[in-house]
Amino acid sequence: MGSNVRPRRQQGVGGPHELYFKNLSKQKQIMEKNGNNRKLRVCVATCNRADYSKLAPIMFGIKAEPQFFELDVVVLGSHLIDDYGNTYRMIEQDDFDIHTRLHTIVRGEDEAAMVESVGLALVKLPDVLNRLKPDIVIVHGDRFDALALATSAALMNIRILHIEGGEVSGTIDDSIRHAITKLAHFHVCCTRSAEQHLISMCEDHDRILLAGCPSYDKLLSSKNKDYMSIIRMWIGEDVKPRDYIVALQHPVTTDIKHSIKMFELTLDALISFNKRTLVLFPNIDAGSKEMVRVMRKKGIEHHPNFRAVKHVPFEQFIQLVAHAGCVIGNSSCGVREVGAFGTPVINLGTRQIGRETGENVLHVRDADTQDKILQALHLQFGQQYPCSKIYGDGNAVPRILKFLKSIDLKEPLQKKFCFPPVKENISQDIDHILETQSALAVDLGGTNLRVAIVSMKGEIVKKYTQLNPKTYEDRIGLILKMCMEAASEAVNLNCRILGVGISTGGRVNPREGIVLHSTKLIQEWSSVDLRTPISDALHLPVWVDNDGNCAALAERKFGHGKGVENFVTLITGTGIGGGIIHQHELIHGSSFCAAELGHIVVSLEGPECLCGSHGCIEAYASGIALQREAKKLHDEDLLLVGGMSVKTEETISAVHLIQAAKLGNAKADSILRTAGTALGLGVVNILHTMNPSLVILSGVLAGHYVNIVKDVIRRQALFSAETVDVVVSNLADPALLGAASLVLDYSTRRIY
């Protein structure tokens, strides 16, 4: 389309002004230019129940404007198969004339059958397109049938309008969707991110319409319809709203065996959860036949709590998910359409992991145990979340119709790609191919500020250390300076930096990247947004977490905690901190102060802690506490023993106390034993609360405490908790490795 007929593009879905088109007279001018007010002949091809729900609103819109359009409907794919509900009938019920029915599915439901189905469609489609001679073919989404449609139309010099391009899901569908994008001449996308992806794929900005999802036009107008009769018809007479589940799970064609196992675990979890459940049969992708066998093996079709159906009409399906207690599975409708109602969703596996989602979606990416899925059901069922309009505002169809009217058929058919400028042609060499994926790790300690380049294997490639400045401005400035130097050096070291991970003392909101308030050791470090300035300067994603949590993540990825489901890490250094891993995931708590293990109180009359309380573990066992006791002994001339000497200007520290104990100073040894006992009592409290299978002691004092802690556990812990393993960390630098783990192995999205 030429710039002479296209006004400026709209700036967002749902804005107050339509900036794409100035007025209707523009459209009439284009139609006159196309030739004596000739109507635009539009072919809509639908392949299955899912794409029809998106295409039907457009089809109704086209049919309602016969002065502008002629509509031809082609039906193919699983629409025409009895096992999948003969869903072509709902097209007839919507009063659309079906011009052509094409049987294109080769049965078998495996990878070879999918390829053969594409081939069969490619054989049959040319004759249909030759007879129809459409001006434009509308193709939706990312199915293999749609790829055959787009390929046929492109090779026959027919313009293609692709709906829902630019999105990212996480399976082979991505490859098919992007392949259709490259064949299509015009694009209708649903979200701002999808629009940016299309632009990044070198598509012409003027041929992209950010309209929103057409199905939302129906979704957002359907909530108030009578729904109880629909619930009774599909779920049962005695079922109440918000007290049933809708399950819709499809095979993942890139990992069929795992997706079948995941489906089996899902059904087991749903049976155990004991709620009325509507299960929809999977789509026709490779692996669906095996999934149906799993359903029948478990007796789902005859189970009193389950209704298994091949198809539900879209308008009724909307009401069912809008009033469900939960939707579970891996269908795109769960992460897209269901968000319009705020219904809780459990997204299983990786099939939709790349989609934009509302806060109603809980991802169970590694759905490898029944217990994990069951726990997710307990977390989500019956919740109510804010309604999301990520994918549309209910006005997509009017925008799409205006877009269609603006198409100039006199313009050259050959599409043009908008490639970014290339400064020079650099041949790829072996160093680039072998580039090491790495993270920038930042450790903000009470004394030093450290930055390191850390590889995926946990190797610290290079480390930079500076004294930690006392003021906020100086500290932020130094962090940026050191990170930029390290990022620049990473190029020379053949390391690709994936992001920045920051470990800092104090309470941190990892979702926002904000230090809420810090320890007294780091001044001017409360309510500090670390993510924004660093991300803006380096153009990299940034993660931030508490140093104790980072130590636990380091152990999970690189240390003793690797593969352990439940463990606790305790850092023994200047202060006492820690992190808790439960069911392989880090616990942050409701206000991000979980695992403040140093402030477990072990004595009501103990020494004062820096937190203001008395008797905390940190008041006994931290480096600061030992330094305090060492100074007391030194002031009373009770510290030094034979073989020890302290220079006049030398500061007394915990090191001197440990040295004195080793050389036979009974008072020093007693202080260390008291400190170790306090730490041990804290560990016993942790065992009785969290029941981990492993406790990892980390930091410079860990080796001095480990045997005392084990002894306290033997004496004080319940019998059932005595079997816990207590080990000393073998990681040289858990703070930096943990910060790197934030980038390499962890994200702030909701992953369960």
Automatic annotation (TrEMBL):
UniProt-annotated binding residues for an N-acyl-D-mannosamine: 507, 519, 547, 596, 599, 618
GO cellular component terms listed in the entry, alphabetical order: cytosol
Keyword Protein biosynthesis among UniProt keywords: no
Residue positions of the active site: 547
Catalytic activity: UDP-N-acetyl-alpha-D-glucosamine + H2O = aldehydo-N-acetyl-D-mannosamine + UDP + H(+); an N-acyl-D-mannosamine + ATP = an N-acyl-D-mannosamine 6-phosphate + ADP + H(+)
Keywords: Allosteric enzyme, ATP-binding, Cytoplasm, Hydrolase, Kinase, Metal-binding, Multifunctional enzyme, Nucleotide-binding, Phosphoprotein, Transferase, Zinc
Matching Pfam families: Epimerase_2 (PF02350), ROK (PF00480)
Domain UDP-N-acetylglucosamine 2-epimerase: 68-405
Pathway(s) this gene product operates in, as recorded in its UniProt entry: Amino-sugar metabolism; N-acetylneuraminate biosynthesis
Single GO term (MF): ATP binding
Taxonomic superkingdom: Eukaryota
Keyword Phosphoprotein: yes
InterPro entries: ATPase_NBD (IPR043129), ROK (IPR000600), UDP-GlcNAc_Epase (IPR020004), UDP_GlcNAc_Epimerase_2_dom (IPR003331)
GO biological process, one term: UDP-N-acetylglucosamine metabolic process
EC number(s) on file: 2.7.1.60, 3.2.1.183
Residues annotated as binding Zn(2+): 599, 609, 611, 616
Record's subcellular location: Cytoplasm, Cytosol
Assembly information from the UniProt record: Homodimer. Homotetramer. Homohexamer. The hexameric form exhibits both enzyme activities, whereas the dimeric form only catalyzes the phosphorylation of N-acyl-D-mannosamine.
Family note: In the N-terminal section; belongs to the UDP-N-acetylglucosamine 2-epimerase family. In the C-terminal section; belongs to the ROK (NagC/XylR) family.
Protein name: Bifunctional UDP-N-acetylglucosamine 2-epimerase/N-acetylmannosamine kinase
Native organism: Terrapene triunguis
